[in-house]
Recover the amino acids of this structure.
C-alpha cells in the first residue's frame, strides 16, 4: 500500500473516530428520568435523523475539506522525481523578455553577478 493511501486511510479512520466520539452524547438519551414538569421537549429527532445530523453530515464536511486540500496536489502534472529527472519545460525567472536572444547575444568573458556575490 502506498504512503498516500495509508495517509488517506488514517485520515478517514481519525475522522470517523472523532465523529463517533463527539456524536456519542447526542445519541444518548437526553432525559433518562423523563422531562421535567411543564417542559414540552417536542417531537425530537428519529434515530436515523440523529445519525444523519451528527455522524454523516460531519463526515461529509470533513471529506469535502480533505478533498479540497488533497486534490490540487494529486492533479499536479509536473513533479520532480529524483530518479526520473525533470520533464517540464525550462522557465527563466526574472530574466530578459526574450531569453533566447539574450543567450545568443552574450559574449565570452561577460561577467554576470549573481545572488550572494556570486560570479558566473
Amino acid at each position: 500500500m502506498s504512503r498516500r493511501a495509508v495517509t488517506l486511510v488514517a485520515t478517514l479512520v481519525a475522522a470517523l473516530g472523532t465523529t463517533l466520539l463527539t456524536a456519542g452524547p447526542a445519541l444518548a438519551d437526553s432525559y433518562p428520568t423523563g422531562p421535567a414538569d411543564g417542559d414540552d421537549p417536542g417531537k425530537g429527532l428519529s434515530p436515523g435523523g440523529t445519525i444523519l445530523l451528527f455522524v454523516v453530515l460531519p463526515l461529509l464536511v470533513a471529506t469535502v475539506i480533505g478533498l479540497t486540500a488533497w486534490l490540487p496536489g494529486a492533479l499536479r502534472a509536473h513533479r520532480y522525481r529524483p530518479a526520473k529527472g525533470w520533464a517540464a519545460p525550462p522557465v527563466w525567472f526574472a530574466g530578459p523578455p526574450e531569453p533566447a536572444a539574450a543567450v545568443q547575444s552574450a559574449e565570452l568573458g561577460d561577467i554576470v553577478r549573481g545572488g550572494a556575490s556570486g560570479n558566473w
